[in-house]
Amino acid sequence: MVAEEDSVSGLGRGAGNLFSRLRWKLTSSVPIKLDSISVVEGRYLATSKSNNHRLFSLMRVRLSDSVEESKLDYSAAVRITLQHQRMKGLLDGLHRARIPFLYTMMVVPSNQDEEEENQVFEFDLVVGTWVDARGKELQEARLECEQNASTLAATLSVGLPNSSVRRLTRNELTGFAQSLLLPAEPRLRQVADSTTLSTLESFEGHGPTTASTSLAPDFYVPNSKESGERGEGIAPGRVRTRSGPPHEFNLQLDDLRRNVSLLA
Questions:
Q1: Given 85, 114, 127, 204, which is the most exposed site by the fewest CB atoms within 10 A?
Q2: Could you give the 3-state DSSP secondary structure of residue 138?
Q3: How high is the pLDDT of residue 224?
Q4: What is the pLDDT of residues 194-241, one digit of tens each?
Q5: What CA dihedral angle connects 176, 179, 182 and 184, to 10 degrees?
Q6: Nearest to 43, CA basis, from 127, 125, 146, 156
């Protein structure tokens, strides 16, 4: 019986796909109709169609200026790996909480000369959640949306620890919706280079079997001050990093009292 139902539903899907293709051949556009897009109670962006409503609770994420660590020479690969783990923690946390969310980043290249090395972008990062409801359930939807928004704001501290999260209300909600949907030049609130923006979304997952040999290792490499200047201990060889000339690596005798792995 299950097999028969699946086959019928599969046939229905196939017919639906056929009708969809024919529809797109007959018309060049399909309107998406909504009764209204509005700001409700100064806290929610709401869309309505007939008696159905969707409430969005939106937050703007503002990045802090990056601060370089002066004592440790961490490679860029380590920072990318740490950020990848933070974003994974963010997604895992939202999955455990069963919270739907959207992650919207609008980016516009700034007016710069092509010769400039550091290309800057104007951008806006807005994260939010939503709840669907019918007319009589609207008050319950507001309460659920508030709870989800509080959890989302707390979970964002895992994925983006050096940032501030602010709830969009009133004019900010209106301005974001207009920037996203209306044909006008968007007013974006932040400025960053490509290095900063690349930490906000990364879909690259490489390991020892697939990584390019030109990539820096995804672990910390001791710099010359930490490993080479003392001139004592065991010298297995020289270390090459992303920047600077190769330097002598000296394994200290105290290190042998712990678990040690040398990879080359």
A1: 114
A2: helix
A3: 66
A4: 777 776 765 444 444 444 555 555 556 666 666 656 667 788 887 776
A5: 150
A6: 146
Contact 249, 237 (CB under 8 A): yes
CB atoms within 10 A of CB 228: 17
Residues of the chain by 3-state class (helix, strand, coil), percent to 5: 35, 25, 40
Contact between 129 and 43 under an 8 Å Cβ cutoff? The reply is no
- Beta carbons of 59 and 149 less than 8 angstroms apart: yes
Burial of 106 (0-12, 13-18, 19+ CB in 10 A): middle
Torsional class of 261: left (φ above 0), alpha (ψ -120 to 50), beta (otherwise): beta
Output the CA–CA distances (angstroms, integers) from residue 184 to 73, 91, 126, 136, 175, in the order listed.
44, 32, 18, 36, 11
Please state, in angstroms and as integers, the Cα–Cα distance from residue 249 to each residue in 89, 148, 220, 239, following that order: 34, 50, 13, 6
Q: Which residues have C-beta within 8 Å of that of residue 188, sequence separation ≥ 6?
A: 106, 107, 108, 122, 123, 124, 179
Compute the residue count for the chain: 264
Pair of tokens at residue 146:
């508030």
Distance CA(248)–CA(246), nearest Å, equals 7
pLDDT on residue 80: 65
- Note the pLDDT tens digit of each residue in 27-76: 777 788 889 999 999 999 999 998 899 999 999 998 876 544 444 445 55
* Structure-model confidence comparison of residues 19 and 30, the more confident one: 30
Question: What local confidence, expressed as pLDDT, does residue 189 receive?
Answer: 78
pLDDT greater at residue 211 or residue 259:
259
